[in-house]
Amino acid sequence: xxxxxxxxxxxxxxxxxxxxxxxxxxxxxxxxxxxxxxxxxxxxxxxxxxxxxxxxxxxxxxxxxxxxxxxxxxxxxxxxxxxxxxxxxxxxxxxxxxxxxxxxxxxxxxxxxxxxxxxxxxxxxxxxxxxxxxxxxxxxxxxxxxxxxxxxxxxxxxxxxxxxxxxxxxxxxxxxxxxxxxxxxxxxxxxxxxxxxxxxxxxxxxxxxxxxxxxxxxxxxxxxxxxxxxxxxxxxxxxxxxxxxxxxxxxxxxxxxxxxxxxxxxxxxxxxxxxxxxxxxxxxxxxxxxxxxxxxxxxxxxxxxxxxxxxxxxxxxxxxxxxxxxxxxxxxxxxxxxxxxxxxxxxxxxxxxxxxxxxxxxxxxxxxxxxxxxxxxxxxxxxxxxxxxxxxxxxxxxxxxxxxxxxxxxxxxxxxxxxxxxxxxxxxxxxxxxxxxxxxxxxxxxxxxxxxxxxxxxxxxxxxxxxxxxxxxxxxxxxxxxxxxxxxxxxxxxxxxxxxxxxxxxxxxxxxxxxxxxxxxxxxxxxxxxxxxxxxxxxxxxxxxxxxxxxxxxxxxxxxxxxxxxxxxxxxxxxxxxxxxxxxxxxxxxxxxxxxxxxxxxxxxxxxxxxxxxxxxxxxxxxxxxxxxxxxxxxxxxxxxxxxxxxxxxxxxxxxxxxxxxxxxxxxxxxxx
Length: 673
Known about the structure:
Blueprint: H1 2-63, E1 66-72, E2 77-82, E3 94-98, H2 100-106, H3 112-124, E4 130-139, E5 142-155, E6 161-170, H4 172-190, E7 193-201, E8 204-210, H5 214-217, H6 222-226, H7 237-252, E9 258-266, E10 272-282, E11 287-294, H8 296-338, H9 342-356, E12 360-367, E13 373-380, E14 390-392, H10 397-401, E15 405-407, E16 430-437, E17 440-449, H11 456-491, H12 501-518, E18 522-529, H13 532-539, H14 541-558, E19 564-569, E20 572-578, H15 582-597, E21 602-603, E22 606-607, E23 613-620, H16 625-641, E24 647-649, H17 666-672
Parallel strand pairs: 23-24
Antiparallel strand pairs: 1-2, 1-6, 2-3, 4-5, 5-6, 7-8, 7-11, 9-10, 10-11, 12-13, 12-17, 13-14, 15-16, 16-17, 18-20, 18-23, 19-20, 21-22
């Protein structure tokens, strides 16, 4: 029994052991199968993720300007995946392998050394990272700025870098914009343009901003300018008024937005420099924004060019004047020799000087009788009006020294005494050229420049021409003065200073022709000194001469400027009164008679007897002088017969004409009735 139970339990145990092994094997097989299934599922997921990652990577390559590279450090070969290193911009994304030299050729020559040196420092551990911008060849000759970043991803057994992964990101546009912005800031900070903003209020403007390069360009600190109460304080006084008016006009205009102006600005050292100012008006903020550009060099060149143009113009004028000088001088000389009097000569000289000395004013002063005083006779241009019209010869340095005198400013010459009346600031450079002919002083030629300063060479040129012209003038004027002197001597009584009978006959005939033509009238008074023979017989001829001079002096004092007083002969005198009616002539003669009657004539300190005159007055409206003189003589003889010291009037008037037979012209008979 015990044996059977033991067997049964043993058999049961074996059976359980077999069943357990089978169950365990089944469970193990099921587990392996399940594990394989899970592995397959995980592998499929990994492949899906890898495919997705590759798709993303491919999308990045195709849409972004990014390339990835891998550097095999030992061999130096570089594999690049992406679009940048393409031979054509239309090529697709590809992977390319480059040798170390080929890779260097893709970097711009100006940056290749820096790129390689920085990579070397990174691989050796000197630099903690590798990040650099450089130009990279993308196709043909097209270079683009890229940002290169790289890091070590594998090392060899000795710990040396074996592989490097990196990226090339296209930053071309952003980097160019950054460079442009940097250059613009550099220009504003260090360039030739000063940027400003100014606030406008209550008629004045004030700086609210000035770029920092004002230190270098103008020498001011920006704060010094923004602290100014008025922007116009640094503008040249001659430009500030115009500039302010221009801004006020622009601020008050509804249309104008831009203002451009050239003005001189005061630098910190006190000098002024020309600047071009361009401003934009912002009326909403009462503000203007703009910039100043230094144009001093150009402006100075323009000013110098203007000076050169003016000098060229002056030179051309001088050349033309020199070319025409001979013709002008010859014409003036011919006309001066044909002139009858100084007035005609002065008119000729005035016209000649205007042609000979363009840009110069002047006058000609002629010597008065006696030779010590000069009087301005001809003037032209804008000669100083404050100058004395009469002056002594010794008051002119040219006359005193006997040679040309040049005055080129108070620091370059001595001013003549006769020009002291001209204000110092109005006195311009001048020349005075004395004219002396045959040992006699004729006059002086003065020339005044319109400029405040004349170059020495130009002054010398004008002086040379003035001296040549003065040589012609002095001879012509000397001859004219001599002719006038001889004519005056021939036509003037040397004792009394009155015109003589010859002059009276000539002038009276001309006057009668004129009044007949113009339907005018002329009166003639014949005058005789009463009892003149007694003065000569009792007191001598010298006493008679004194009486004649005294009576002549009264005549000259009482007549009009165009009346003609003459010594007709001996003690008889005549007075021609053009345009004077007979009644007015009688009144004039009565005035003269009373003046002579009241004379006190002394000779050798002794009072002489009273001097009286008798006069006869006649009037004519034409005819000849002989008849008019006869009429006046008849009236004079009547005054003598009636007791002397009185004025009588001729009863005859009209045309003073007689026939060859001595009878009256029929027209005269009709006029007499």
